[in-house]
Amino acid sequence: MRIALGVEYCGTAFRGWQSQAGGGTVQDALEAALAGIAGQPVSTMCAGRTDAGVHATQQVVHFDAPVARPLTAWVRGVNANLPDGVAVRWAQPVADEFHARFSAHGRRYRYLLLNRPQRPGLWQGRVGWFHLPLDLPAMQDACGRLLGEQDFSAFRAAQCQAKSPIKTMSTASVRQSGALLVFDFAASAFLHHMVRNLVGSLVHVGKGAASPEWIDALLQMKDRTQAAPTFSPDGLYFRGPVYEPHWGLPAPTDDLIDGLLG
Fold it and tell me: Which of 28, 51, 216, 255 is catalytic?
């Protein structure tokens, strides 16, 4: 039976999602916990790989269960075997044709940026930080220029393995909640480091180093070296993939973060 899981994690203590030599990744921890319930190795596939230090409010994972277990075992049982900072929120049987990555037709990210003179204490590792005042309307203007089908080469990491830099951005916004700036992005897919590179350039606009029209120029130039540096992973949250309703998966939820932001 193919099972889909909804997983949340704080990426601070992990070396990213994808399994690698030496361990220390979310995938390593999850597969070890699943193996503890199954009694044999279990391989997983996620909807969107995240880098070291990046968090997820709803990563979706699928695996082919080698043995029959109650769904509660794939949630409470797995959680009992997981380290701090990662938890399964739900488990659900899915059709054999479902694929966590390839069945998704969109993905969503949020970046939380603390904008105050003092660095974060309580939120260390969970928010980005910029010490100078930022111009919110200018950044909102700049966000609007990212919408639609665009060539995002200027915001693509050199090691990106995507076949094409052309993606369709359906949401690019920034709002303020107290001292936090909340950036939201939704697109058909994202390039490696794309969101962190976008935030870096939007902050560049916000601090007055460039006008919102600079974003148009970057999109036209398609040159990563002309954009701002990559921003910290600390404030980046993968909010989950977007699937067609017929798969019957729970809707993505950011209940904890949305509750904190008010």
Answer: 51
